[in-house]
Design brief:
Layout (H helix, E strand, L loop, with lengths): L1 E10 L2 E7 L4 E5 L6 H13 L18 E9 L7 E8 L4 E5 L2 E2 L3 H7 L2 E4 L5 H4 L2 H15 L3 H21 L4 H40 L5 E6 L8 H7 L1 H7 L10 E6 L2 E2 H4 L2 H23 L4 E4 L2 H4 L2 H13 L3 E6 L3 H4 L7 E7 L2 E4 L1
Parallel strand pairs: 3-13, 3-14, 8-12, 12-13
Antiparallel strand pairs: 1-2, 1-4, 4-5, 5-6, 6-7, 9-10, 10-11, 14-15
The structure holds adenosine-5'-triphosphate (ATP) and magnesium ion.
Adenosine-5'-triphosphate binds next to helix 1.
Length: 362
């Protein structure tokens, strides 16, 4: 997937930015506050239907404006089989997404139309934060390679919600609880199966990517399914019934899953330096991109915010050459042009200078 052109209207300080994107390396440099992250934010919005920074999309709309619009031409290989993708969000809260003019019904359709990977200063939370981010990371991968996963996930969420509502209700109707438990367990097991298979394949790529960076140690990814390994979910739910009723929520199941990330047998977040944690996050995301390419033959679009501030010179070079070999299009930002000059030397690329919300080539 490649963005060939990108039009941004009223996203943060970007009033009207129209760029012809390079199919491989795009560098956006400029002073603090010039609008570099906002450009990545606009692309992210197009591919995810949400902001990576703000829960409230109103904050992303330029001050004083009533709506934001981001649209792009997305090219697939072979060229000329692409489509026009667009999103619009009004201050009143209306969100619209379109593909070649036709309205999309869910953000899952956007995610499918534009497979994106984003890495910024907060990405270390993939290792150091709570399990939600690791589940989202895992589900991104499964979603892109298993058709029907998003439908399965929605059915699971619905069954979980119903069961939790019943648990919170107070007047416990055993038959209804058993009915929702019976609905939930096969869905949870199916999700677990997909995730396990995916993680097993991803581990191979993660090991390779981490080894490529050198010095990170032997990376190991294990799946915690959301309940004890030595019993079935039915048994785990039975064992958790009193607690579930007391807390008014379902305490075991696929919604509690996690990835246990270790390096040389020790939890990665405890073993690695801050810079190495970041490197491992790059390795994990590059591994996803490698797996995605292997399965679909397609590349994802990478957004790398403030790359020079995140990694040392040698590792920046490794990330860039990895992205090139995966044939990914990428957008990387930084304050100084000179930080990128030697990085992209001899490589096809496009530089954009961002100044006060205006992007110009060169
Ligand atoms: N809703 C908004 N409307 C207008 N401007 C906004 C809005 N939200 C943020 N801004 C401004 O947009 C500008 C660009 O922010 P952005 O984060 O894109 O800068 P940047 O180039 O990434 O800077 P840095 O190098 O410091 O990371 C900032 O000055 C910010 O205050
Ligand atoms: Mg920034």
């Amino acid at each position: 997937m490649i963005l060939s052109r990108l039009d941004i209207l009223q996203v943060r300080n970007l009033q009207d930015v129209r760029v012809v994107c390079h199919p491989e390396a795009n560098v956006i440099y400029g002073a603090n506050g010039s609008g570099k992250t906002s450009l990545l934010e606009a692309i992210y919005l197009l591919g995810r239907g949400r902001s990576f920074k703000h829960r409230d999309l109103r904050l992303v709309i330029s001050e004083g404006a009533t709506e934001l619009v981001v649209s792009a031409r997305v090219e697939r290989s072979p060229p000329k089989s692409g489509y026009q993708l667009g999103v619009k969000r009004t201050v009143a809260g209306k969100f619209e997404a379109r593909l070649d003019g036709a309205a999309l019904q869910s953000s899952a359709q956007l995610v499918e139309a534009l497979p994106l990977q984003m890495i910024d200063a907060h990405s270390f939370t993939l290792l150091e934060g709570g399990p939600l981010q690791r589940r989202q990371f895992l589900d991104w991968g499964v979603f892109h390679v298993e058709h029907g996963y998003s439908g399965l996930w929605k059915r699971f969420q619905k069954a979980l919600k119903q069961r939790n509502q019943l648990l919170r209700h107070g007047r416990m109707d055993q038959d209804s609880l058993s009915a929702w438990t019976a609905e939930l367990t096969p869905l949870s097991d199916e999700i677990t199966g997909y995730r396990r298979d995916y993680l097993a394949e991803l581990s191979r790529h993660a090991l390779e990517a981490a080894e490529g960076f050198g010095g990170l140690g032997k990376v190991q990814l294990d799946y915690y399914q959301g309940w004890r390994d030595d019993c079935s979910l039915v048994e785990a739910l039975e064992a958790s019934r009193v607690r579930d009723i007391a807390t008014g929520t379902t305490n075991v199941g696929a919604h509690k899953a996690d990835i246990i990330i270790k390096v040389d047998g020790v939890p990665a977040a405890e073993r690695l330096s801050r810079g190495q944690v970041k490197l491992l996050v790059y390795a994990l995301k590059l591994a996803q991109a490698a797996h995605f390419r292997e399965k679909t033959g397609r590349g994802c679009v990478f957004l790398l915010d403030d790359l020079p501030a995140e990694l040392d010179y040698q590792h920046r070079g490794q990330v860039v050459s990895c992205l090139n070999s995966l044939e990914c299009q990428y957008f990387m930002t930084g304050v100084d042009r000179k930080d990128f000059e030697s990085l992209v030397d001899g490589m096809a690329h496009q530089m954009f200078h961002m100044e006060h919300g205006v992007a110009s080539e060169g």
